[in-house]
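Why does residue order matter? Because the sequence determines the fold. Keep that principle in mind as you read this record.
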Amino acid sequence: MSNIEIEMKYRITKEIYDNIFEYFNKEKVESKVEKQNDIYFSPIHFPFLGGEIDNECLRLRVLDSKNILSYKKFVSAIGDEPAHCIEHELEISDIEKLKLILNDLRIKEEFTLKKERRSFIYNNIEISLDMVDNLGYFVELEIINQENINRSLEVMNKLVKRFRITEEMRNYDGYSYLLFNEKNKESSGDIVS
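Structure:
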């Protein structure tokens, strides 16, 4: 499956996380909860991680019901077209065989990111509340149907304003970039707060 992904992600406080959860719970918007283990891979000869900006990602998402291999590439905003990710996904049945293939292609396993995701669908927006091990609390707003992108962007911006989420909280880096840097701080002996 190939898709263009338009989303906004913010690093938030536990208080904002709780406020968002309570709001959608009170509005009786259904939610689903998933434990996600995301295994990140990077080519040895052309690393996806560790640069000034990590604009590519190869991830295996391990869920209770299935495993999904995803490749994502970030595309900057151009003219009227908003910044977005090009995404290709494929369901994988044999994780160990995939790891052997990637290893033979000189694509190494970097780390596993663990999170609990609670998702709500509201006005053509998927709102995902994430508790990420070693990183904290995040909210991700993603457009589901791209027929009316401008209207969906308006809804996203209203939600951001409603929950007092500021531009300073915006996360353009992605979880893989943040966790890679945290892991490198730990291994270099820097104190991690």
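The first helix runs from residue 14 to 26.
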